[in-house]
Sequence to fold (158 residues):
Amino acid sequence: MQCPSCQNTDSRVLESRAADGGRSVRRRRECLNCDFRFTTYERVETIPISVLKSNGSRETFNRSKLLHGLTLACQKTNIPTAKLTSIVDELELGLQQNNLREISSSEIGEMVLDQLGNLSEVAYIRFASVHREFQGISDFVKALKTINSNKNQLASVR
Ligand SMILES: [Zn+2]
Fold:
């Protein structure tokens, strides 16, 4: 790593520490030539994932947009923001680990709904109404039935 002060390429690592919730490593370095101290970050390279939308257009997967949608759906429920962040983190990690280059927005939506169904009926219905473009009250009734039948399945397993 080139020293920002003298451009020498030899440095020693003084300290390594996990940063960004374990997603990167922060290293404190000292130049062997001029003793200048600087910091470097190392992180896993992520591939951009493209999202195929229902109208046929594509956009790059955007975690803050997804988090924003989730936050709106969860307003005035008592689901902590950290929980929403971890849903988005896990979803993104899953996509990266499966080496998926493309996913449809409806698949992403269903993955999120799977998580929300266990957390809050209100958040589930709100998110589903936006994501599935509900046209009328019958769509809400159908979605509520889906949550309840999932719950009954869980109950019968237990
Ligand atoms: Zn230097």
